[in-house]
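All the exercises in this workshop are built on plain-text protein records. A record pairs a protein's sequence with a compact description of its fold. Backbone structure tokens are a discrete shorthand for how the chain folds in space. Once this layout is familiar, the rest of the handout is easier to follow. As an example, a complete record with its sequence and its structure tokens follows.
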Amino acid sequence: MEAIIEKFDLQKADPNYYKVSSKPEIRDLDPYYYLTVEGRGHPESEPVWNAVSQLYAVAYGVKFTCKAEDMDFKVPKMEGFWWIDGGPEAQKNFTLTPKEQWNWKFLIRMPDFVEGDHFYRAVQKVKTKNPELIANDEVKFELINEGKCVQILHIGSYDEEEPTIMKMIEFMQKNELTMNGHHHEIYLSDPRKTPTEKLRTIIRYAVK
């Protein structure tokens, strides 16, 4: 009888990264590897849907490549960086800026055992099966280090995040912290299956 190998679950293995409170709090994060894809434009535009499709195709390619080596894992929650042109100070006007001017980078964090070779082989398999999907190597394998962050849990629509963000800004001011990175969202809920008012999203900002 074959032994059942349990899938590695990053959300359970790293609660420091995924655990969140409804009040602003400080977290210190290590550098992590992610699959990433970036672009610019409205969150509901075709380039965004294409980018998400590319990201998940490669993520599952990496998963099955690792599974063949007895290192199966659950594909982690998707995340997104959102920002507008300008430095950290400009980001305070992020929610007031037309969405067509938003820059974005979607991410899926990878377990520590995933290496560049797993990523390369996964991309080659996706290219073979669907060459039009990632013809220009849009998806990257990237090390990101946010370090010290402020985060909070937002419940509800993505379009109604401003009051939650203001709580974070007030917390930063009280603790003499300033933004040092992009608006970061971790999507704990699947918007295709979850009512809008029940969506759970971690909002995170790197600070200094």
